[in-house]
Every structure is written in C-alpha cells, then in structure tokens.
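Duplicate of #3305? Posting structure anyway:
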C-alpha cells in the first residue's frame, strides 16, 4: 500500500496540525477512548463506521482496549469475520523527526490479529492470516500466513 510523506522544517511531532484538524483528532480520540471499554458487539462497529469512517465488514469482533489511529481512522479497512485481539493498536500515521508518514491499513477477511499487536501504516494483512499476540506488523502479510514477533516473521503452526 502507498504511504504519503510530508516533510517538515522542524520536529514533525510538533507540526501534526499541518496534516489534520486538531478538533477532528480530538473528536476521534474521544470516540475511540469511549468505545475501547466496550466488549465486541455490532453497535460498537456501527459507531466506528459512522462516526470515524472505519470500513468494517460483517461479523467483526473488536475486543476491548483496541486503539485505532485518531488521525486518519478512515484509512482503516477490516474484512468480514475478523477478530481484533485485546489491546491491539492499528496506526495510519507515524512521526519521524523530519516528516509525517500516513498510509492505509487493510485487514482481510477472517484474520486473527492477536492481542497487543501493533500494525504499522501502509500494511495489508491477507485473508485468513494469523498474527500472534504481541507482534509488530511492520510489513504486509500474505493470505493464510501465520506470523509473529517483533518484527513479524513466519511461525510454524501447531505446538
């Protein structure tokens, strides 16, 4: 997926208002904070869809403490039948010292994103992929893959 990069003159983290309206980021953060305490259910998904613009398929379970990027949540897409584990973070932006990078995140159908995993902007997770808990998804994951670690690497199934 394509990343967009905006160069900054100084500290990018101090210049984020160049790419996003602060009141919108505040609103998005408020919605994300309230919903993160709720268990998975369709009303929660509906609010994410309508208020934040996240594309969420049918039969998706978003566990408590999941954090979606408040800067560009509309760049997140989650396919049907996916389970997002407790405390996962899905980011569509990242600050570097001299630039801000944004990019979409696409999570396929019937994916298991393990708890406390972090997904970096500009990545795609293919259908039926499994991401182990506590993983850093720093690159795209092919369909059906089983990966984990920091950064992710292929893992063997079974144990």
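Output from current build:
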């Amino acid at each position: 997926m394509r990343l967009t990069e905006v160069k900054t003159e100084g500290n990018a983290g101090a210049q984020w208002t160049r790419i996003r309206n602060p009141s919108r980021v505040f609103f998005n953060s408020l919605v994300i904070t309230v919903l993160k305490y709720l268990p998975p259910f369709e009303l929660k998904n509906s609010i994410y869809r309508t208020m934040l613009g996240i594309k969420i398929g049918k039969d998706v379970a978003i566990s408590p403490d999941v954090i979606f990027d408040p800067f560009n949540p509309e760049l997140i897409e989650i396919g049907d039948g996916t389970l997002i584990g407790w405390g996962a973070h899905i980011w569509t932006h990242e600050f570097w010292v001299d630039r801000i990078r944004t990019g979409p995140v696409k999570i396929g159908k019937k994916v298991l994103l393990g708890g406390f995993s972090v997904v970096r902007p500009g990545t795609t997770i293919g259908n039926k992929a499994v991401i182990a808990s506590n993983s850093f998804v720093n690159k795209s994951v092919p369909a059906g893959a089983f990966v984990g670690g920091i950064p992710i690497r292929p893992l063997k199934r079974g144990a």
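Confirmed duplicate; merging threads. The first helix runs from residue 22 to 35. The domain at 4-152 is CATH 2.160.10.10 (UDP N-Acetylglucosamine Acyltransferase; domain 1).
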